[in-house]
Structures are given as structure tokens and as C-alpha cells.
From TrEMBL, chain A:
ABC transporter domain location: 6-256
Record-linked Pfam families: ABC_tran (PF00005), oligo_HPY (PF08352)
Name of the molecule in the record: Peptide/nickel transport system ATP-binding protein/oligopeptide transport system ATP-binding protein
Alphabetical keyword list: ATP-binding, Nucleotide-binding, Transport
PROSITE patterns linked: ABC_TRANSPORTER_1, ABC_TRANSPORTER_2
Gene Ontology BP annotations: peptide transport; transmembrane transport
Family, similarity comment: Belongs to the ABC transporter superfamily.
InterPro entries documented for this protein: AAA+_ATPase (IPR003593), ABC_transp_ATP-bind (IPR050319), ABC_transporter-like_ATP-bd (IPR003439), ABC_transporter-like_CS (IPR017871), Oligopep_ABC_C (IPR013563), P-loop_NTPase (IPR027417)
Source organism superkingdom: Bacteria
Alphabetized GO MF terms: ATP binding; ATP hydrolysis activity
UniProtKB/TrEMBL annotation, chain B:
Top-rank taxon: Bacteria
All copies of domain ABC transporter, residue ranges: 14-264
Protein name (Swiss-Prot/TrEMBL): Peptide/nickel transport system ATP-binding protein
GO cellular component: plasma membrane
SUPFAM superfamilies (UniProt xref): P-loop containing nucleoside triphosphate hydrolases
Organism in which the protein naturally occurs: Pelagirhabdus alkalitolerans
Acetylation listed as a keyword: no
């Protein structure tokens, strides 16, 4: 049995909205509102959802890039939120992040060597004299030439820049890498190369990934387990296969059915579920089930009672979803409401 | 099944012949569009797919003659209803843009003017192209907002772009583009910036409006899923050239060009489990524009490339079905493995 590397309990991230003449906090954006999950050593867990669902905020809160409002984050048996800023800085050796836009997240005025050297120096994991060798090794590992180390970021293509971001994250031998939309900005052919690279590195360095993405094709390919978020809450979570083949939450079903399939004449074409309207504002999220304003199955109960994450006997082990009517929708006794 | 030859039966609404658009830097010329040919049949949708830098957006901007310095349309013909748009004066072009040919862009926030209400922005088209009064134009604008499925259009018409969500803004863009009932709509990555559930809404809206208004669409996208779902014909572009042109069913069922196969393989799918295998990727990356390969543009990355591919540029050959392909494998001059089948490389 592999151990839990990361354990997140009831994580909340409320961003204050200042207003009025005195600049008081008048309200909060409840970006993440009570999220709990675990990530086991060596696995890839993906968090998916649309813009504003809180997936990136969750990733940032775990690394304490923004300190969360409340909750617990336990990493490798240690409570991260109890650490001082200085201790946390040291701890980040084990937790690294790769961002979406490789150009915005690396300093354009530094050469690749300087970028990597800075990371090595801050964490001081490699003696100074060995650093040039380490940098050359890192460059080769991510598929760049060691001779390219003295170039500036603008001399690289988008895919190569993302490789630099990966090399920087790898430089301190982390245990967990949070990949925040790490391949979203890349062209498909380059995206495929970077996905292959990330999978290979995972095997080679026994890395654990928390993969934050909106592209469900990429998620299906890379993940072991999947977490679906909507408006700051987890609506469904489980093994990749059960989420994709046997989704229970109406939102997950709608999300999967909305993706255009690259096949003009699919053998089994599933009826597309169109969601009406947009995601409501996270400032005053809907009462009860947050999805009820767009859910075709919503009833009066959904407007009042917040559903909890729970398993259902039609699910595989470890699969949970938060909907009042999972069973009834599956056996057809609960139909879409007019 | 629709065949690409069906196009030939009727005069297409748009025919682009040997279009060449270049950008001139101090050191060299970048041939962004390098001899592109395609046709858009009436009432149909043509998809133009390719990755960044393939020239798909420049092609669409060239059709409307929106290329700015240091770019220049060097040659070719753009026949819209039989007339060459490259022969028109700027004043004549202004009458066509937004009227007979309209365009929607990827990022609705940057293409809407933040200091005018959406009503004022849609009205502009009516006032300029149809000489309507302000009041009349505003009334029509409200109707257009209703047509594109914006709830309470009477209130929305008075709002500014920042008061709308991303999906709403894209609906406004569509309303604006369709205001004058165009015969051709050019949609440049119209749903790329949107979430999938909103994308599904917008694509459905576009299809529905096409059925009702009978317009032709050029859909520019990098998303092969969007292509499969919305297009009748597809042109795949690579480095400024069309490498394959086929009906959408042929392209996905029986892709001929190694680049098309590579693109399809690179795409992880949410409805297919590949297991723990690596994606079958296209090696390397697009060469820089100052270092264009002499032979086939794709040869340095092509798993099938033979000697001739590196030496000579293949022509665009027409097949019996009317599909077009730019690859040596399908010619008599092919000097590689005669048994080669590009489709054997397909992994999905």
C-alpha cells in the first residue's frame, strides 16, 4: 500500500472584496470552499473544471503561494500551514509548480543557466562546483541540448520554454509537482511531446503529480485519479476509468458530453447535454447544490440542501459524487425537470 | 456521403487561387501564406486547421484584405462570387466587409470596443451598410441579440462589454457579424477562449444560424474536435501551404498526409483509453521561417520522408474523389517503400 503524500482537508480560500468609503471588506469571493482529497505517492491526480471553479487556487493554496483562509494541508506527514514562511520556503524543495505560460513564468533577462542555477542555489541541494554538470544533466533530461544553457528564453520555442520550466522544477529533486495547465498553451504536436516527457520523468524520478487542467483528453491520458470541481467545490472524484466511463454527477456528464470528438461519424454518439447559462458568480454562490441553476435535473430540494460527496452502489470503489439524485438518474426514475 | 467533387457542380461562394501573403523583415521575407488554394461551397463550412504559424489566420485576414504593413498580399486570386477581391478598391472592400463577408475573432473582449454599448456597436453595421436611422438600427440590434440567444435583450443592448460574460460577448460578436446577413462568415478560433460547456452552446448556435440563414462559413481552428463536429470540408495547413484538402469524413477516416496522421495521433481523447502507452508524436518542431526546408516543408519531421522529399517540393495532386494531397508518396515519382501506408501509423 503506497502512502498518502498529500492530504488536503476542508481547504477554504476566500478572497476579500474591499469596498465602501473606508475600504472595509464587504464580501468574499469563495474561490475554494471546503475541499478535501488525498494524493498518494507516485500517482497523478488531476483537478478539472471550467474557469473559476477554483482548481488553480487549490494548487496555489497547497504550495502556500496564496495562504489559504482555513483548512489543513498535510504533506509527507507534516502540516504545511503551521510552518513559518522561512520553513515553508525550505519545504518547497519537495513541492514544485509548473505554470501554464512558460514565457511569463521564467525571467526573460536570465539565461537558462542562470534560471536553473538560482533554483539550485536557493535550495542549496548541489555543491557549487557540481552545478554546471547538474545543469547539463537537467537540460538533457528534459530533451534540450546542454549547449543551449547559455541562451535566453526568447531564443526558444513555446514547447522548449515549457521544458525549461520543467527542468527548473526538477532541479531541486521534488516529490510533488503541481502542473497548472502546464500543456494548455502548446500546439497539439508539441503538447503531445511534453505529455510524453512528463510521464517519462514521473517513472524515472518517482514523481507525484497534481495536474490541473481543463482539457479532458489530456487528463484521461495522464491521470490515475480525477477530481471534478464546480464553483469552489468538488462535485465528483474517483479513478480515471470510473469518472470517464461511469460518471454520476450531472455536471461531469455535461462536461464530458460537451467536448467535441475528433470523429465525424462516431459509432456511439451520446446525446449532448447542453447546460443553460453561465457559471454563477463565486461571490454569492447559489444555495444548496451550487450546480442547481444550470442542472437539468434540479428540484426544490437541490435549491436548499447541499449534497455531500458519497459513494453509490453503482460506482467502483473510491468513486464519490455530490448529487441528491445519482441513483435515480441512472435507473431512470428521476427525469430532467421542465 | 458528400464528396469534395460536389463543389465543382456549383460555383463556390469563395475560391482562393494560389494566394501568397508575405511579411517583409529587414533580413528576409516570411512567406506566411505560400500558394494556397481552396474553395468554400455555398452554404457549407470549410475548416482550416493547423498549428501556430501554419498561416491559417493570415489566410483568413487576406481574404478580407486586412493584412497590414509589413505584410503584403503578393499574388493570387480571391474570387468571391466570381469577382476578384484583390482588384477591388479600398472603398469597395469597405462595402463588402461586415456586409457580405463578416468575421468573428477568438478574443471577444479585445475585438469589442469597451467604451460603447453592445447596441451601439451592432447598430454601426446597420447605419453604415443599410442606411438605417439610429433608432431603427437599435431596434434591429435588439432583435439580433435575441436571435443569438441572449436573455433579456432589451436590457443587454444598453450594456457595455465588461458587463457580459465571455460566452455572452462571443454571442454579441456573432450578432454583430451576422447583422447584415452575410453570405460568408469567417470565424477565427471562435471558441478557443471559452470553456467547453460554453463552446458547445456557441457551436450549436452557429450551426443553427447557418441552417436558418444559409450562409457559408470558414472555420479556422486548431481543434480537430471542432472540425469534426462543424465542418463539411477541411484544409490542413502546414508552414503556409495546404498539405491536405478533403471532405471531413474522408479526412478523419482515411487521412493521407503524414502530418494529418501525426496531428490525429498527438491528440489525447477523452473518449478513448490509450492505456499507459506514449502518444505517437510528431518529432521536432516547426522550422523557423528563415530556415524553410527546400523540399517538402514537412520532410524534416516526417517519419516516411525519402530522398525526393528533401529535394523537391511536392505538388498539390487531386484525387478521383476530388480530395487534394501534397505528398510524394501518392505520386509516380515516389522513391521510398512502395508498400508504405500512412494510416498504419494511426494509433487512435
Amino acid at each position: 500500500m503506497t502512502k498518502d503524500l498529500l492530504k488536503v482537508t476542508d481547504l477554504k480560500q476566500y478572497f476579500p472584496i474591499k469596498g465602501g468609503m473606508l475600504g472595509r471588506t464587504v464580501n468574499h469571493v469563495k474561490a475554494v470552499d471546503g475541499v478535501s482529497f488525498t494524493v498518494k505517492e507516485g500517482e497523478t491526480v488531476s483537478i478539472v473544471g471550467e474557469s473559476g471553479c477554483g482548481k488553480s487556487t487549490t494548487g496555489r493554496a497547497i504550495l502556500r503561494l496564496d495562504d489559504p483562509t482555513s483548512g489543513e494541508v498535510e504533506f509527507d506527514g507534516e502540516d504545511l500551514l503551521g510552518l513559518s514562511k522561512k520553513e515553508m520556503r525550505k519545504r518547497r524543495k519537495d513541492l514544485q509548480i509548473i505554470f501554464q505560460d512558460p514565457y511569463a513564468s521564467i525571467n526573460p533577462r536570465q539565461t537558462v543557466r542562470q534560471i536553473l542555477e538560482e533554483a539550485l542555489e536557493i535550495q542549496n541541494t548541489v555543491p557549487k562546483k557540481d552545478r554546471p554538470d547538474k545543469i547539463a544533466e537537467l537540460m538533457e533530461t528534459v530533451g534540450l541540448g546542454a549547449h543551449q544553457a547559455d541562451r535566453f528564453p526568447h531564443e526558444f520555442s513555446g514547447g522548449q520554454r515549457q521544458r525549461i520550466g520543467i527542468a527548473r522544477a526538477l532541479s531541486v529533486d521534488p516529490k510533488l509537482i503541481v502542473a497548472d495547465e502546464a500543456v494548455s498553451a502548446l500546439d497539439v504536436s508539441i503538447q503531445a511531446q511534453v505529455i510524453n516527457l512528463m510521464k517519462r520523468l514521473q517513472r524515472e524520478f518517482s514523481l507525484t503529480y497534481l495536474f490541473i487542467a481543463h482539457d479532458l483528453g489530456v487528463v484521461r491520458h495522464i491521470s490515475d485519479r480525477v477530481i471534478v470541481m464546480y464553483l469552489g467545490k468538488i462535485v465528483e472524484m474517483g479513478d480515471k476509468k470510473s469518472i470517464f466511463d461511469n460518471p454520476h454527477h450531472p455536471y461531469t456528464k455535461a462536461l464530458l458530453s460537451a467536448i467535441p470528438v475528433p470523429d465525424p461519424a462516431p459509432e456511439k454518439k451520446e446525446e449532448r447535454v447542453f447546460l443553460k447559462g453561465d457559471v454563477p458568480s463565486p461571490i454569492d454562490p447559489p444555495q444548496g447544490c451550487r450546480f442547481h441553476t444550470r442542472c437539468p435535473f434540479a428540484t426544490e430540494k437541490c435549491k436548499v440542501e447541499t449534497p455531500e460527496l458519497r459513494p453509490e452502489d453503482t460506482m467502483e470503489e473510491g468513486h464519490v459524487a455530490a448529487c441528491h439524485y445519482m441513483k435515480e438518474i441512472i435507473d431512470g426514475t428521476h427525469k430532467p425537470q421542465q | 456521403m458528400v464528396k469534395a467533387t460536389d463543389i465543382l457542380d456549383e460555383q463556390p461562394i469563395l475560391e482562393v487561387k494560389d494566394l501568397q501573403t508575405s511579411f517583409f523583415t529587414e533580413k528576409f521575407e516570411v512567406k506566411a501564406v505560400d500558394g494556397v488554394n481552396f474553395a468554400v461551397p455555398k452554404g457549407k463550412t470549410l475548416g482550416i486547421v493547423g498549428e501556430s504559424g501554419s498561416g491559417k489566420s493570415i489566410t483568413s485576414l487576406s481574404v478580407l484584405r486586412l493584412i497590414q504593413d509589413p505584410g503584403k498580399i503578393k499574388g493570387g486570386e480571391i474570387l468571391f462570387k466570381g469577382e476578384n477581391l484583390l482588384d477591388k478598391s479600398e472603398a469597395q472592400m469597405r462595402k463588402i466587409r461586415g456586409n457580405e463577408i463578416s468575421m468573428i475573432f477568438q478574443e471577444p473582449m479585445t475585438s469589442l470596443n469597451p467604451v460603447y454599448t453592445v447596441g451601439q456597436q451592432i447598430s454601426e453595421a446597420y447605419m453604415i451598410h443599410q442606411n438605417m436611422s439610429k433608432k431603427e438600427a437599435m431596434l434591429r440590434s435588439t432583435e439580433m441579440l435575441e436571435l443569438v440567444g441572449i436573455p433579456s435583450p432589451k436590457q443587454r443592448v444598453k450594456q457595455y462589454p465588461h458587463e457580459l460574460s465571455g460566452g455572452m460577448r462571443q454571442r454579441v460578436m456573432i450578432a454583430m457579424a451576422l447583422a447584415c446577413d452575410p453570405e460568408l462568415l469567417i470565424a477565427d478560433e471562435p471558441t478557443t477562449a471559452l470553456d467547453v460547456t460554453i463552446q458547445a452552446q456557441i457551436l450549436e448556435l452557429m450551426k443553427d444560424l447557418q441552417d436558418r440563414l444559409g450562409m457559408s462559413i470558414i472555420m479556422i481552428t486548431h481543434d480537430l474536435g471542432v472540425v469534426a463536429e462543424t465542418c463539411d470540408y477541411v484544409a490542413v495547413m502546414y508552414m503556409g501551404k495546404v498539405v491536405e484538402y478533403a471532405s471531413v469524413t474522408d479526412l478523419f477516416k482515411n487521412p493521407k498526409h503524414p502530418y494529418t496522421v501525426g496531428l490525429l495521433n498527438s491528440l489525447p481523447r477523452h473518449d478513448v483509453d490509450l492505456g499507459d502507452v506514449e502518444l505517437n508524436v510528431i518529432k521536432g518542431s516547426v522550422p523557423s521561417p528563415d530556415n524553410i526546408p527546400t523540399g517538402c516543408r514537412f520532410a524534416p519531421r516526417c517519419p516516411f520522408a525519402s530522398d525526393i522529399c528533401h529535394e523537391k517540393l511536392p505538388h498539390l495532386e487531386q484525387s478521383e474523389e476530388g480530395n487534394q494531397i501534397r505528398c510524394w508518396i501518392y505520386t509516380d515519382e515516389w522513391d521510398g517503400d512502395p508498400e508504405v501506408n500512412v494510416n498504419d501509423q494511426r494509433s487512435t
